[in-house]
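# nightly structure sweep
# worker-07 picked up a monomer target from the shared queue
# config: single-sequence mode, recycle default, output format = structure tokens
# input follows
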Amino acid sequence: MRNHKMYEADDKMITLISDNYNILESLGRFGINLGFGDKTVREVCEDQKVDTYTFLAIVNFSINGYRNSDDNGRLSVPTLLLYLKESHVYYLDFQLPAIRKELIEALDEDDNLARLILKLYDAYAREIRTHMKYEEQNVFPYVDKLLRGELEDDYDIETFSKHHGQTTLKLRELKNIIIKYLPSDALRNNKLMAVLTDLYKSEQWLGQHAEVEDYIFVPAIRRLERLKKQNDVSIKISRMISHNTESGEALSEREREVIVSVVQGMSNKEIADHLCISINTVITHRRNIVRKLQIHSVAGLTIYAIVNNLVDISAVKL
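# output follows
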């Protein structure tokens, strides 16, 4: 059952944990150490160099399913990346081996069915490891490059999102087989109960981990990609404008007037009437503008006009 309380930066960290003990597992993923006394969430995060907003976004999503589409612009992608990387370390290096050890202790090594169950668990573990290693080798380095201002032509976060499939099917199958078909005495029954409890917790954790990736991480990276592409286009146009201004043929006063009219949304006929010239003359001026500036789009001419103070940006419909 979800706790529908919304936690905020001024709540005490100990209160958050007391209300939701399973959040303890998440603290380590953010690099937050215990021993923080009665400090607030904000104080703990600031002391331990963790972005408070991103921490609360993941905590509130995990606890009560709260997700705000406006979060994407405020989330710290480096903090998200740290959280996901450390989650992988926790699950691959600690959780999977610990459950396997429990399973071995609970099973009768002389029983063929028990050996098959262990084999099924190992197959599940390999699947999870492959899934997470793919992210570590492809997704995380891609995001690191984005953060450095680099955008790849042959990969994007949508590629990852489309192939981000279900990873808990074998785990569910394993649990059901143990419950339905594995006979045991009282001692083994207790051990198997403990293993099953951990398997259920593991399934819940994995589902939550996947949801954080799908509903928080992926949208944040999509936004980062859009910003990078927009920035690249702006830089390219600015360089083109600079190059043509410095080395190209200068615009005439009439051509500048035509550019302003185009930016203001006038048609060729409206420009002709406004400047008291013929439509053919307007078309000739526009051809000359394209030739001199190598700018074909209205958006490009708008940027040129703003950069060169032909129009005020406040008067432009963006």
